Amino acid sequence: MPKRAKSKPTRKLKTYQTSLGFYDQAIAAPSMKAALEAWGASSNLFHQGAAKETDDPDIVAATLAKPGVVLRRPVGSDGAFRESAELPTDLAEEHSSPKRKPKRPAKKPRTTKKPPRKLDDQAARKAAAAFEKEERRREAERRKEEAARAKERVRRDKAVAAAEAALDRARREHEAKTEEIEAARAALDDRAEAEQTRWDKQRMKLQEALRRARE
């Protein structure tokens, strides 16, 4: 009997959280490396203490609903994570209205932390498949952008080569014309020198004739 192809093991997704710029960011990813790539981080935020794995049930639920998608909320807030988040309230007010005295934040009632929600195998597989789909989409987008950059480099290199060739042609034409002018100038100098020599001889001869006529 033919052997069945082994199914690819499902990568368990974890939820990671960080703060970049004006936003807190969260993502469901199979590894810290995958999370860093999705965030576009140029350094290891986990080693720097700027990122962490979270088991907050609300954040976990939000990220697992959109695996591989970077979700955001205004930095320092406790609102829900979304694909599109507004600027932090204090920053938005700073740009839209005159400054007011900051109000004292109201004390939040203590709430018991909800236990993390457990995913069954089917939901985990579904979330992992969604993450891989989003990862493929991002990779396709990266390839598309790289192809566009490569195309632009080819166009730029072609334009530079054409400009350099035009400059070389113009330089050679200029040098040829300069040589032609120099040759013509040398010929004129020779003619002028010959004319001066002829004139000197004729002048001396005529002056001698004039001197004799006066005697």
The structure class reads alpha+beta
* Order of H and E elements: EEHEHEHH
| Biggest pleated sheet | 4 strands, antiparallel
Overall form: rod-shaped
User: Uncertain segments of ≥5 residues (pLDDT<50)?
Assistant: none
C-alpha end-to-end distance: 141 Å
Helicity, as a percent range: 55-70%
Overall pLDDT level: 82
How many separate domains make up the residues?
A: 2
Describe, in plain words, how this protein is organized in 3D.
The protein is an alpha+beta fold. It folds into 2 domains: 14-74, no CATH class; 120-214. Helix content is 55%, strand content 10%. It is built from 4 helices and 4 strands, in the order ββαβαβαα. It has helices at 32-39, 57-65, 89-96, 121-214; strands at residues 14-20, 23-29, 51-53, 71-74. A 4-stranded antiparallel beta sheet has the order 3-1-2-4. Strand 1 (14-20) and strand 2 form a beta hairpin. The longest helix has 94 residues, at 121-214. It is rod-shaped and about 135 Å long. The N and C termini lie far apart (141 Å). The model has no long low-confidence stretch (mean pLDDT 82).
Question: What key attributes describe this structure?
Answer:
four-stranded antiparallel β-sheet; rod-shaped; 4 helices; 2 domains; alpha+beta; 215 residues; single chain; 55% helix
